[in-house]
Amino acid sequence: MRFYVAVILAKLTKRLIRLLGGGATTAPGRVAELICPSIFNSLIRKCQEVAFVSGTNGKTTTTRLIAGMVEGARGNVTCNRAGSNLMRGLVSTLLEGGELENTAAILEVDERTLPPALDWSKPAKEYLLQTTNIKAVVLLNLFRDQLDRYGEIDGIAARWKDSFIRSISPNTVIIANADDPLISHLAKSLANKNRIVFFGIEESPVVLNAVPISADAANCPECGNPLEFSQVYFSHLGKYFCLACKFTRPTPSIYTKSLDLWGQAGLSADISTPLGNIWINTKLTGMHNIYNILAATATAQALGISLGTIKIAVDNVVPAFGRSGAIEVNGKRVFISLVKNPTGFDVSLQTAFQNMKYKVILIAINNQVNDGRDVSWLWDVNLDPLRGQADRIWLSGSRADDMALRLKYSGVSGERIIEKNLHKALLGALRDTPFEDRLCVFSTYSALLELNKSLSRITASKRFWEY
Amino acid sequence: MWLRIEWLYPRNMGTYGDRGNILALEYRCRQRGITPVIKEIHLGDRVAPDEIDLFFLGGGQDKNQTDVAEELEKNRDVIAWSVQQGSFFLGICGGYQLLGHTYVLPNGQRINGLGLLDIHTVPGKNRLVGPISVLPNPLLKDLTAGIQSLIGFENHGGRTILGNNVFPLGTTISGHGNNGTDGTEGSFYGTVFGTYLHGPLLPLNPSFCDFLIKKALERRHGTVELPPLDNSIEEQARVAALFS
Residue A19: is its pLDDT beyond 60? Predict the structure, then answer.
């Protein structure tokens, strides 16, 4: 009874918010939870099949990729497209999913929310765990992200492990990143109960000389000694082994045999899987996206989807709203990168400035809860790719001054303009961008939401939260 | 003139943007024609008894802190001797905790610190997180021409308790400070300074950065006058940090 009341009130809430012009991506869920606390469990159990995607970077892109593959193969998919990945966002998404019995739910889950999501997905009767509908859980990576919200990544990994042991069926496949020591260590410890599918990069044109300063888990998760890396791709991801206790990167069954990065134009790769190879060519950019593609490929294969469908989905994916990819505005191409943590910002800068110079760039830094309240992380970003590559740098968002301070001590040249108002800064930066030229924008999450609203006002596009 | 900085365990204790402090020291030295010489000490390295002007130890996760504590044990005597000769030491967050006698982890494990500050740290129920502003200890004003208030961001589970042979770095104007109860933040004694302030500390507090540079150099060079720098960007960032 409660369940139905919760569903009705949630739908009413959504109608109301949409009427008032908002996105309504989490409020309906909150309303439903208040009325019926076990609503997540009720909804999850109805779905035909479920996959959870978690980690620090790449959840939204990976989720969209998997959803595209499942849609190509089977039809009905629901996923939290707008990236609302806390419990209330998951509930809202499921409430909108229509007939869940015929639907696959591919859900991105915030790292802190994964344990309660797993615990709440567990059926009341233990034996029902054998016939679970939770087909896969994807563990992408663990980076230091928004420390003031989450504390330490070792703690997150430990909580994940506990909830896996408590609540996961032996029939759920765990899709894990072989190149992340913390993730592979966790997955190996679960291998006696669950099937683990590892993905990773075997061949890469971009290899760093050493683990960068912004890296986190460069120590052996087993014994604590520093890890040796034969190859580092970015941050602490690469091919590693421990001299002291012999902990080694596991061999991935889904991996890149060759990889070409085309800067902001995209990337192509030859991906090897146990069921064959595919050659993909996509508009997604940067090293981090190759991991998202590998993770999605591994998951789709675990869900029984053919390589042909997987390839079509990857080749045709449109990047999630404002996360990456170009938006055309009055003859100028705006490239937006979401930056949430040092690693993400590093990769975005490397990708943007690979053999490119720009007249103008815009960096927008907010520090609302979603962005991380502490902006100290800006000092762990490697700004070298920016040196000499931009003539004018617009700085915006509530913490534009901190970014200005960061730039002051970084040896990056280029004229700075500080304009905290995001809309004005965007207009100014657009005006400075020559016709047919590019504007690169690097922005934290809450600033990105506003910038996208501004962009849609400018380009008169309507449903911004789905873009 | 050289400023010799020994950066302790940057890979293990550098989780919160603390390298910004090294960047600030480097920049503000170079602007005055002083050459910063930075030596990084990693796990397994020995601290050499060279003339070190300033030791720096940043913050890190509990596990890293435990590893580093073991290493510091091996270098304890050299560091203590160096400090006795007049070397300065700045510890931030986890680094601050390791300057004390002991640090007790949430799981009850007890780690020994360097014992250079008469403090000890125990776990608290929750993390003390948020922007923080500190009125500097008046003792510091006597040593140099006025340090402005210290502004930063704190994020720590540990509660640090001051003993009798140490001075608080300042009193909290807003924020929690050492333990959230006695209104103190950080501590110092002689040439050893510790604080919970991220931000990072030295970029956001240029007068404190200059104070450290000046005092650290004066040991070997007699009176040092640092020409003032344009701190307008720092001022704006400080305002933003306070009202963010």
Answer: yes
**Contact between A165 and A202 (Cβ < 8 Å):** no
Confidence of residue B156 (pLDDT cuts 50, 70, 90): very high
The answer to whether the Cβ–Cβ distance between B153 and A153 falls below 8 Å is no
Q: Shortest CA distance to A105 belongs to which of A124, A89, A123, A128?
A: A89
Instruction: Write out chain A residues lying below 8 Å of B61, CB-based.
Output: 152-154
**In 3-state terms, chain A is what percent helix, strand and coil (to 5)?**
40, 20, 35
Q: How far is A91 from chain B (nearest CA, A)?
A: 28
A185 touches chain B (CB under 8 A): no
Say if CB B20 and CB B54 are below 8 A apart. Answer: no
- Region A197-220: what's the mean pLDDT? 74
> How far does the CA of residue A321 sit from the closest CA of chain B (Å)?
27
The whole-angstrom separation of Cα A238 and Cα A296 is: 19
**What tens digit of pLDDT does each residue of B210-244 get?**
999 999 999 889 889 899 999 999 999 999 888 77
Q: Is the ipTM of this complex over 0.85?
A: yes
Strands A134-139 and A49-54: parallel
Q: Which residue in this structure is represented by tokens 């490119």?
A: A356
A-chain residues within 8 Å CB-CB of B20? 376, 379, 406, 409
Nearby residues of A16 by Cβ (< 8 Å), 6 or more positions away: none
**Which entry of B29, B93, B120, B176 is annotated as an active-site residue?**
B93
Determine contact, residues A217/B63, Cβ cutoff 8 Å: no
Q: Among A64-78, A166-180, A419-433, B130-144, where is mean pLDDT lowest?
A: B130-144
CB contact under 8 A, A409 and B23: yes
pLDDT for A125 equals 80
Q: How far apart are CA B126 and CA B113, in angstroms?
A: 22
**Structure token digits, residue A249:** 């990167």
Distance CA(A99)–CA(A77), nearest Å, equals 10
Cis peptide before B200 (omega within 30 of 0): yes
Q: How far is CA A192 from the centre of its chain?
A: 28
Q: Find tokens 């020409």 and name the residue.
A: B227
DSSP H or E segment with residue B71:
helix B62-84
The per-type count for chain A, helices as H runs and strands as E runs, is: 15, 17
Would you call A374 and B198 a contact, using CB atoms and an 8 Å cutoff? yes
B42 is catalytic: no
Q: Which residue has the tokens 């909580």?
A: A159
For residues A49 and A102, give the distance between their C-alpha atoms in angstroms, rounded to a whole number.
Answer: 9
DSSP state of B17: S
CA A235 to chain B, closest CA, distance in angstroms equals: 12
Name the nearest CA neighbour of A227 among A198, B57, A382, A215.
A215
Is residue A2 less than 8 Å (CB to CB) from chain B? Answer: no
Q: Where are the alpha helices (DSSP H) in A123-261?
A: 147-150, 153-167, 181-189
Q: Which DSSP category does A377 fall into?
A: G
CA distances from A449 to A26, A179, A422, B199 (A): 15, 31, 10, 25
CA trace torsion A149, A151, A153, A158 (10° rounding): -110
